[in-house]
Amino acid sequence: MHDPDLPEKxxxxxxxxxxxxxxxxxxxxxxxxxxxxxxxxxxxAVAWYEQxxxxxxxxxxxxxxxxxLSSSSQPGVMAxxxxxxxxxxxxxxxxxxxxxxxxxxxx
Length: 107
Known about the structure:
Elements: H1 8-16, E1 25-29, E2 37-41, H2 46-52, E3 58-62, E4 68-72, H3 75-85, H4 91-106
């Protein structure tokens, strides 16, 4: 993620904390004309990490009708939201407090 408008601390936090420990699967919409989704499970493959590390939202849950129920937000959007919150809280400290326990469990 390279956004010159973001504070350096937020960029550093997003570079230091990988997304893949929080994503064990995702869905891709293969055909825009249908509600068919393909589920991709975690894999030690370059394609997995490339998809998960993209600056895009990832659908993580769909219902039986193909409707999106849950997603992992686009990292760039999350970073801009944290930057906007910066005037109220120190977002990097909050982010570290939220993520540290999950990172310990994932490793």
